[in-house]
TrEMBL record:
GO MF annotation list: methyltransferase activity
InterPro entries per UniProt: S-AdoMet-dep_MeTrfase_Alr7345, SAM-dependent_MTases_sf
One Gene Ontology term from the biological process aspect of the record: methylation
Residue ranges of the TM segments: none
Keyword entries, A-Z: Methyltransferase, Signal, Transferase
Region Disordered, annotated ranges: 100-120
Protein name listed in UniProt: Methyltransferase
Stretches with biased composition (Pro residues): 104-114
Signal peptide bounds: 1-21
Keyword hit for Signal: yes
Organism, as annotated: Croceibacterium salegens
Domain of life, per lineage: Bacteria
């Protein structure tokens, strides 16, 4: 049975309204300022700049985010940003968990009780995969570990291609890491836990990504780039780059 013109228009408006609601942008300032957030998380905000970085990600309600080598601090924020209809995958690399002598949570488990839209994923670096395609994949301060003995090392091109395939077309791969000196060797990466930003750009270009945004939010020009990042003189104050790559 054909709908009347008014009925068809009303149905179209309902569909349009639903789509707009699904694509709504969260108020990141309100998310960060929420007094219900754990006090330990709030104490880290000054150094981590969550409002600025969430704004850079431009997450929408209903989207899917994967956090590689996950941490509850960011996963709580992502969970609030994508809302109850969105998903956050806490993506554990089994090699990293083994190296840190940590037990990988069972796949599909919910590691943050107050955020049931966060679920654990178990995968490997070289065959990285997710239960469903992601809008954003986030990898903070550990990309350099793909190169050193801590992770094997991994097959970096295979990892990046796997991340590419795990994203939706137009999806973004966000990499944050400690800045290393230009031309830094693998030995320097392992010793200092830093990486030359040019290496990251080259790696991701080779995998088919486009660099679409970067942020100076975590830059520190006073960091001489010669201290190990856990050195008390620089810990928490390292120069860090923030790159947003896109799968075309």
């Amino acid at each position: 049975m054909l709908k009347s013109a008014p009925a068809a228009l009303a149905a179209a408006l309902l569909v349009s309204t639903a789509c707009m609601a699904a694509a709504a942008s969260p108020d990141v300032t309100a998310i960060v300022a929420d007094p219900a957030r754990p006090e330990a998380d709030r104490a880290l905000d000054a150094s981590r700049h969550p409002a600025e970085l969430l704004a850079l990600l431009d997450l929408k309600e209903g989207q899917t985010v994967a956090d590689i080598w996950p941490g509850d601090y960011w996963d709580r924020l992502f969970a609030d940003a994508v809302g109850p209809t969105g998903k956050v995958y806490a993506a554990h690399l089994t090699e990293a968990d083994a190296a840190e002598k940590q037990v990988t949570p069972p796949p599909g488990s919910m590691p943050i009780p107050e955020h049931p839209n966060v679920t654990s994923v178990s995968t490997t670096a070289n065959t990285f995969s997710l239960p469903s395609k992601a809008d954003v994949i986030w990898f903070r301060q550990n990309y350099h570990d793909l190169y050193d003995k801590f992770m094997g090392p991994s097959d970096v091109p295979a990892f990046n291609k796997a991340v590419y395939e795990a994203l939706k077309p137009g999806g973004r791969f966000v990499i944050i890491d400690h800045t290393g000196k230009p031309g830094s060797s693998v030995e320097a990466m392992e010793k200092l836990h830093r990486i030359d930003p040019a290496v990251v750009k080259q790696d991701l270009a080779a995998a088919g990504f486009r660099l679409v945004a970067e942020s100076d939010t975590l830059r520190n020009p006073d960091d001489a780039l010669d201290l190990m990042v856990f050195n008390p003189a620089i810990r928490g104050k390292t120069d860090q780059f923030v790159y947003v790559f896109e799968r075309p």
